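Usage

Read records sequentially. Each one opens with the input sequence:
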Amino acid sequence: MKKQGIFTIPNILGFYRILAFPFILWFALSDKENLFAMFLVINLLTDVADGLIARLFKIESEFGARLDSLADIFTYLLAFTGIYVFKLEDFIPHLTSFVVFLIMMSLIVVISLIKFGKFPSFHLYSTKIGGYIQGAFFIALFTYGFSSPFYYLMITWGIISAIEHITIQLIIPRMRSNVKGLYRVLKNKNTINQPEN
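and closes with the structure output:
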């Protein structure tokens, strides 16, 4: 992966999401649902934008991949806080599946920190698609309301993606960014043990 400057447009969007975290969290904790929803949607849209810009202009970088993953974790924390504060009643009938989903998402981070001492930054295709589904679900949740079919699509895809992610974490000996998928890891066994650039 090519080395790029720190202050690229994708990285600036990633920094924005991290810096916006305490303000958006405050909107949630202050019961300002409209402001919370608006800025959460902005976070979700900048998450999509930074990846598209990085790929389109070929300015992907190791630093950018890790920054994006960290910003994703903050955005997830915001979304789950918003669910707890504003939408918990909608989720109570689906609590078991939601807890399983949260456990799987947490395991990805915990296993990465224990095994590699770093936050995960695989950027799997399944995770990217899952991120789009989750982002669309959260946007719909805070603008139109809860949809059971959409919810179960998000949960099912998220759990399957988490299983793939955890499997890769258990296979590879060191953290790598932009792994893309389990099939690629198994197909390119020769590169698994190569150090990062």
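Summary fields computed downstream for this record:
- Residues 9-192 form a domain with the Four Helix Bundle (Hemerythrin (Met), subunit A) fold (CATH 1.20.120).
- Helices lie at 9-29, 33-56, 62-91, 95-116, 125-143, 148-171, 182-187, 189-192.
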